[in-house]
Design brief:
- The protein is mainly alpha-helical.
- It has nine helices and no strands.
- Keywords: DNA-binding, Transcription, Transcription regulation.
Length: about 200
């Protein structure tokens, strides 16, 4: 009986390992489909699920098994891009890193997401509670960073942080548009930050 109990325990452990491996494989497949969908749809927004499957290197039934419809696929892409956007800002540690360093890092990180997931980012549903929460959190982090930048003398003391944020967002948007053709995010991030801090005039 003891031997049988040990055998069952061993099978349970093995089954758990197999189950985790299967879940990991499923997640990798889903991510491969999302990444392929971004590549295909950013070039051709009218592309079919079959074209996405071909780009992902999987059967069309595999795509349909994970995403019931094209709309469900686009929603999943947008949700993934929103989480990547939040992670990009978080990874820069904007609340603790020196403000100027954090500003460059946040900019480069966000540009990578906006350029790499341009189609998905453009399809975000602003009414979605998660998307709304993410954007509100990013706005607050941005304002805190700008206030710290003022305290350190990186931004003028009389600058309006909210106006600076709006200008900063507009610069990132334009840089991301340019980055679809020339995707050197470090160069683009430097251009965004230099324009924000120094402008384009000589005065």
């Amino acid at each position: 009986m003891r031997h049988c109990g040990t055998l069952r325990s061993g099978v349970g452990v093995k089954g758990g390992v197999v189950s985790r491996a299967m879940r990991a494989d499923s997640e990798r497949t889903a991510l491969a489909i999302l990444e392929a969908a971004e590549r295909v749809l950013v070039r051709n927004p009218a592309a079919t699920m079959a074209q996405v499957a071909e780009a992902a290197g999987v059967a069309r039934t595999t795509v349909h098994r994970r995403f019931a419809s094209r709309e469900a696929l686009v929603e999943a892409m947008s949700a993934w891009a929103a989480r990547r956007f939040a992670a990009a800002v978080e990874e820069a540690r904007s609340d603790t890193t020196p403000p100027l360093v954090a500003l460059y890092q946040v900019t480069a990180n966000v540009l990578r997401v906006k350029i790499g997931w341009g189609f998905a980012m453009s399809r975000m549903n602003s009414a979605d509670p998660e998307v709304e929460r993410i954007h509100a959190d990013v706005r607050e982090k941005c304002l805190r960073l700008f206030r710290r930048a003022q305290e350190d003398g990186v931004l003028r003391a009389d600058a309006d942080p909210e106006w600076a944020r709006r200008v900063y967002y507009a610069l990132i948007h334009e840089a991301a548009e340019q980055g679809r053709d020339d995707g050197d995010t470090d160069v683009l991030a430097t251009r965004v930050v230099d324009t924000l801090l120094r402008g384009v005039g000589t005065g």
